[in-house]
Amino acid sequence: MNQQTAGTPKYHRILLKLGGEALSGEDNFGIDPGQADWIASLVKRVKNHGVEVAVVIGGGNLWRGASGEAKGMDRSTADYIGMMATVMNAMALRDALERQGVPTRVQSAIEMHAITESYIRLRAMRHLEKGRVVILAAGTGNPFFTTDSAAALRGIEIHADVLIKATKVNGVYDSDPKKNPDAKRFTSISFDEVIERRLQVMDATAFTLCMENHLPILVLDLWEDGALERALMGDENVGTTIS
Fold first, then answer.
1. Per-residue pLDDT at 3 exceeds 60
2. Per-residue pLDDT, 1
3. 24: number of Cβ within 10 Å
4. What is the pLDDT of residues 53-88, one digit of tens each?
5. Per-residue pLDDT tens digits for 14-23
6. Within the chain, where are the H helices?
7. Is there a contact between 187 and 241 (Cβ–Cβ < 8 Å)?
8. How far apart are CA 91 and CA 137, in angstroms?
9. Backbone φ/ψ region at 101: left (φ over 0), alpha (ψ -120 to 50), beta
10. Do the bridges between strand 217-221 and strand 240-242 make them parallel or antiparallel, or are there none, so unpaired?
């Protein structure tokens, strides 16, 4: 993979996967409008290059289903609460984007007609073609599936060129970089090698969906200055590409 010509994006349409914590404040809980504004500014910079952007966002800053289940809550109920948390995050991000002049639509896998559109694949793609950001909320609409799985599924459905998993780690390593100072970061790696090495990228369902449908995954540190924009413009020194 060669570095792209300056000014020419490497990808035309992306699915950006954000954890709910991307919108949280210092306590890693709740929605910080300042953080939402910052995320919106990153998305706007990417869109200014002509890239079509769909977003799937988690709800971990508001609710973690595993915590409810651990205290005896029914798993399905806990997961549905988590889906509603993702809708809250999606609305906060939409507001931040709209205030920065970026037309945005929220589509929910669970019908909430008063506040969102229902998820319709062709409508989502039409929004993207018209230059709107589309935030895809409520996961897959089903319990027992993570928002990583939702990101993989939606990325495949809308024909995204890449699924970008935005984390606080600047790529995929051969061992835990927090425990091993000599850990090696891969700039690129195959799906098969990730499996052979038992590297943790995302949950097995999401990873398998991407692998079987040939959707590349790009893992990068969203908080690294300019990382998202540089990766989309073809800088191979940013993150890890799995393909």
1. no
2. 41
3. 19
4. 999 999 999 998 888 888 899 999 999 999 999 999
5. 999 999 999 9
6. 33-47, 65-70, 75-99, 121-129, 147-157, 191-197, 204-212, 227-232
7. yes
8. 9
9. left
10. antiparallel
Q: What is the pTM of this model?
A: 0.94
Q: Is the pLDDT of residue 6 over 90?
A: no
Neighbours of 27 (CB within 10 A): 8
Can you list the domains of the chain with their CATH numbers? 13-242 (3.40.1160.10)
Pair 23, 59: CB distance under 8 Å: no
Q: Distance between alpha carbon 8 and the CA centroid of its chain, in Å?
A: 22
Q: What is the CA radius of gyration of the chain?
A: 17
Contacts of 216 by beta carbon, 8 Å cutoff, 6+ apart = 161, 162, 163, 210, 241, 242, 243
What is the CB neighbour count within 10 angstroms for residue 154? 26
The span from the CA of 204 to the CA of 183, in Å, is 23
Distance (Å, whole) CA 210 – CA 219: 13
List Cβ neighbours of 10 (8 Å cut-off, separation of 6 or more): 4, 231, 232, 233, 234
- Residue 7 pLDDT grade (very low, low, confident, very high; cuts 50, 70, 90): confident
Q: Which two tokens stand for residue 118?
A: 């229902």
